[in-house]
Amino acid sequence: MLMVLLRVIASFVLLLPPIPSTEIGQLLGVPAYFAPATWSRLTGPSIAVANPVSGPGRTVDAELAAAMSAAHERGVTVLGYVTTGYLGRTGRVTRFGESDAAAWLTQTQQEIAAWYRLYGDHGLTGIFLDEVADDCPSAAGYRDLRTFTRRYDPAARLAANPGTGVPECFSDAADVLVSFEGDLAGYRTWQPPQWQLTQDPRRFWHLVHDAPDPTQAINLGKQRNAGYMYVTPDVLANPWDTLPDDTYLTTEKAKATAPDTLPPARPGPPEATTREATTLSLRWPASPDAIAYEIYVDGQHTADTLAGTPTIDLTSLKPGRLYGIRTRARDHAGNLSPFSYPARLATIPCPGLRPTRPEALTASQVRPSGLRLTWRPSSDARAYDIYRDGLLISSTPGTAAAIGALTPATPYTFTVVARNDAGGSSGPDLTVTTAPAGRDPITDPDGTIGPDAVVYQASFGVPFDIHQVLLDLDGDETTGLPVLGLGADHLVESGWLFRHQGPGWTWTPLAPVDLAVSDDRHVWRVPRTAYPQVSPHRAVFRGSTPDAYSEVITVE
């Protein structure tokens, strides 16, 4: 399947002056972390991020699937939420208990694959990556994730949230970057890096909460070159769990529009300046008002330039293939030109040979919810694609991968394909049955207060999507979240300690914690500095979904 990635030659990027605020037309980009029924109020063109269980989960949520499909029909670009765990830089571990960047990229690929397996026929248009590592060495991994995503859909959109102050090396790591997320008070004084003021506004997305009226934030966003905005009066701990009322939302959309409605002139037809086996370098006569160009390959919108320079490299093409390519210009207001006249351009045939077959595919560390695959390397292989029951789930340059989110006592058939530009060669299939689930969902809960850390640990015998420890630190069952006779005023989940803010399931992050996972036993180490006055307290472990709880224990 065609994959197209964008790489604009850095030396040709125009250094444009900041755009006057009234000229920029904005679209809404909504973290739609609310009930599926609320999705009926979302209209396009806009972005909405779906997030059923901090990721796709393991089964289709029928109500969410229907809401996504309907939103897509209304012109909404629907993205599926996936966390990348900062690629392990903060100590976060994968489901398999690993914390290196390669393990996190492998798990992220499997989450992307799950989104397309579960919701690919329900309006899914791309992926939203959260908890993104913002250092330059990590940028290449995120470019690879976009390549991987476009193997499912050549026109897939990839958004990423690396936070404020992201360096320019991330400019082409995703189609859209969330470059601000915070409250209106912080947004008033924040300024983007200079490089973000000179590129296509539709590459930047600002999220602003605790704003009683959206007008000021929208105006500031235009001054700061944000082509996507979302402003809400909602507040922490989770400002994205509601959608503003109709009056607020109507005002927000009206302020986001631009007065300019005149489309830019049609650009000239593209021509190839360089042709390789998997790459075409293109240029075309410019459109005078263009801030960026959209590139269409065989009728699909597959790439955009970073700015108004009419050049681009299309990569990850197939050798020896003829493509139909058109461009169209977009101005600051978001107006689109007519399409350029099409060009028929071909890559050159690949002169090399396919890699040899990968052999000795083996499964080890077989658990109820996962296993590890290893195989012998092939000669001349650039990467190895891993298929589960015939569906692509991961691609790696190495010869091992941890496979997660499996169902207990279930047979799976795995295939590894070695590939390079000349093609692929598959090794023999391997069928493995996962271990049965434990008799009890959560067993052997324990907790101890040590001199440097408070340690909580339990074994989860069911492949839950979420693993938590609910803590009653103040010993008052009338405060916090009521659960099994205790008042949970603190929560440990993944690599963080949270404090209950109420009402209901509302939590504020306090401090990172260390999490280690081995053979489905989860061990959290909360530093004493996170709550230095801690004393003996009660705790309960929770898994979801489906919901299950351990017995209540006393930690001392």
Automatic annotation (TrEMBL):
UniProt domain Fibronectin type-III: residue ranges: 266-351, 357-437
Superkingdom classification of source: Bacteria
Region (Disordered): 253-276, 425-446
Residue ranges with Pro residues bias: 261-270
Keyword field contains tRNA-binding: no
UniProt KW keywords: Carbohydrate metabolism, Glycosidase, Hydrolase, Polysaccharide degradation
Keyword set includes Hydrolase: yes
Xref: CDD domains: FN3
Annotated GO biological process: polysaccharide catabolic process
UniProt GO molecular function: hydrolase activity, acting on glycosyl bonds
Classification via PANTHER family: FIBRONECTIN TYPE-III DOMAIN-CONTAINING PROTEIN-RELATED (PTHR35040:SF7), PTHR35040
Protein name as it appears in the record: Fibronectin type-III domain-containing protein
Organism: Acrocarpospora corrugata
Lineage summary: Bacteria, Bacillati, Actinomycetota, Actinomycetes, Streptosporangiales
